[in-house]
């Protein structure tokens, strides 16, 4: 049978300074065509399984059942959902709905966005000029405007923190924010 990885690759070799008593034997090659029960047996024989093999097999059977139920639900109700969504949004469908038309629309979207860059560039510089003007007249800024700007800055920082937390898998540890 084909093997998933060579049994003696440089990645599997121990560090030269590791004493022989602490070296682990190289991993056995895994055939790619394993049946799930054989995977459970191999995993438990290699010490990977923290759960008894019978419990893992039961959990695997449960997951297969749930996947079959989800596939059955999608096959029964997916067509109705598709028809409803298409009926609701038929004004956005370009006729004829072909691959060539999709490619043409994709190209139109790209060049339309490219054509909008000069207008966005001008808007950016107008905004920047407004900020410069406010900075020149900073002595005349009202406390209310200063408070609004401060709250806006705090909100930006809060959204940055939320993004950082989401980026590391919704854990609060690992980054110093």
Strand and helix layout:
Layout: H1 36-45, H2 53-88, H3 99-115, H4 117-136, H5 143-167
Helix pairs in contact: 1-2
| Biggest sheet details | none
Helix run count: 5
What form results from the Cα inertia axes?
extended
Beta content comes to under 5%
Amino- and carboxy-terminal Cα gap: 50 Å
How many β-strands, per DSSP? 0
Tell me the structural class: mainly alpha
| CA-based gyration radius | 30 Å
Task: Name the helix and strand elements from N-terminus to C-terminus, one letter apiece.
Answer: HHHHH
Q: What is the oligomer described by this structure?
A: single chain
- Low-confidence segments, given as residue ranges, are 1-6
Overall pLDDT confidence: 79
Helicity range: 55-70%
Descriptive account of the structure:
- Among the domains are: 57 residues, no CATH class; 54 residues, no CATH class.
- It has 177 residues and is mainly alpha-helical.
- 61% of the residues lie in helices and 0% in strands.
- The N terminus is likely disordered.
- The longest helix is centred in the middle third of the chain and has 36 residues.
- Pfam families: ATP-synt_G.
- Belongs to the ATPase g subunit family.
- One of its GO terms (molecular function) is proton transmembrane transporter activity.
- Its main location: mitochondrion.
């Amino acid at each position: 049978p084909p093997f998933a990885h060579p049994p003696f690759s440089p990645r599997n070799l121990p560090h030269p300074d590791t004493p022989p008593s602490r070296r682990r034997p190289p991993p056995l090659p895994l055939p790619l065509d394993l049946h799930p029960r054989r995977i459970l047996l191999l995993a438990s024989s290699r010490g990977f399984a923290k759960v008894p093999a019978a419990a893992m097999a039961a959990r695997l059977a449960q997951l297969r059942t749930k996947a079959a139920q989800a596939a059955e639900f999608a096959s029964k109700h997916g067509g109705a959902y598709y028809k409803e969504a298409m009926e609701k949004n038929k004004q956005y469908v370009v006729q004829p709905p072909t691959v060539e038309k999709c490619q043409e629309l994709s190209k139109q979207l790209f060049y339309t966005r490219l054509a909008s860059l000069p207008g966005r560039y001008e808007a950016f510089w107008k905004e920047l000029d407004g900020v410069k003007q406010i900075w020149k007249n900073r002595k005349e800024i009202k406390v209310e405007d200063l408070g609004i700007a401060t709250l806006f800055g705090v909100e930006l920082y809060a959204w940055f923190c939320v993004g950082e937390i989401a980026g590391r898998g919704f854990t609060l540890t690992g980054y110093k924010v």
